[in-house]
Design brief:
- The chain is α/β, with parallel strands linked by helices.
- Among the domains are: 72 residues; 86 residues, no CATH class.
- It is 38% helix and 16% strand.
- The chain has ten helices and twelve strands.
- The strands form three sheets. Strands 1-2-3-4-6-8-9 form a seven-stranded parallel beta sheet.
- Helix 5 links the parallel strand 3 and strand 4.
- Helix 3 packs parallel to helix 4 and helix 6 packs parallel to helix 7.
- This is F-box/LRR-repeat protein.
- It comes from Zea mays.
- InterPro entries: LRR_dom_sf.
Length: 250
């Protein structure tokens, strides 16, 4: 019987990889936290070996911590993107991991890591860093200033499902001169004023109020109001992970 053609582990879809990680070591089952931690390290080690360290993106599960990120920095120094939902991360260990990821281009992190010194370290260690996604409940002008001052070369910024002040939005638009993509969708806000829309007109993509009603996609700020055909979903619905929004913040 002929063996099927082999494929590189590095070609595995990122969503599938994180699904494997989560199912292999899911908290709340019979495993203790220690065994869950060890199981994820084992999975990462196998993935790194099979891909010969060439993994470019990893979406870590909620129970991942700084040890897993440090492991990735050691075994996959060419990593371009990671998602780390953890809300319990020490600045020192995070910065240590970032120091080993000089090829990093983007990351998705919790608001607990939105600190000027931490993000400045990212800026200094990762010359190609241009993409940031933040999980946050509220963003004010002060937090916006931290992001702008520490990561001035951002081209893509995503802070979905978040209450955000008008001053914060304007700060992003005024200070991030290279910004091309801003996603603050998923939260109805009165902060979108005419000045905001005028300033945002220079962007290639601006998603700000993607509304849902009873599970139905009703409006998209990027494609236009009432421009949604259930049989032919809009580009944003397909490309910007609507289902992630529906699931809500982790």
């Amino acid at each position: 019987m002929a063996m099927p053609p082999s494929r590189s582990w590095a070609e595995l879809q990122h969503d599938l990889l994180v699904s494997i990680m989560t199912r292999a070591a899911r908290p709340g089952h019979s495993s203790s936290r220690v065994s869950v931690h060890a199981a994820l390290v084992g999975i990462l080690e196998v993935a790194a070996k099979l891909a010969e360290g060439r993994i470019e993106a990893v979406l870590l599960p909620e129970f991942a911590d700084e040890d897993h990120l440090l492991f990735l920095a050691e075994r996959c120094p060419n990593l371009h993107y990671f998602s780390l939902p953890s809300t319990c991360m020490t600045y020192d260990q995070f910065c240590k991991a970032i120091g080993g990821l000089q090829s990093l281009k983007g990351m998705a992190v919790d608001e607990s890591l939105i600190n000027y010194d931490v993000l400045l370290h990212v800026h200094q260690c990762c010359p190609d860093f241009v993409e940031l996604k933040v999980s946050a409940l509220y963003v004010d002008e002060e937090m916006a200033s931290v992001i702008c001052n520490s990561l001035p070369r951002l081209k893509k910024l995503e802070i979905p499902s978040c209450d955000m002040s008008s001053a914060a939005i304007i700060r992003f638009l005024d200070c991030l001169e290279q910004l091309e993509h801003l996603d603050i969708s998923g939260y109805e806000t009165s902060a979108i004023s005419s000045p905001v829309l005028e300033k945002a007109s220079r962007l290639k993509v601006f998603l700000w109020n993607s509304k849902f009603e009873l599970g139905e996609f009703m409006d998209c700020s990027n494609c236009g109001e009432h421009n949604i055909n259930p049989q032919e979903p809009c580009k944003c619905m397909m490309e910007h992970k609507v289902m992630d929004w529906l699931a809500g913040p982790s």
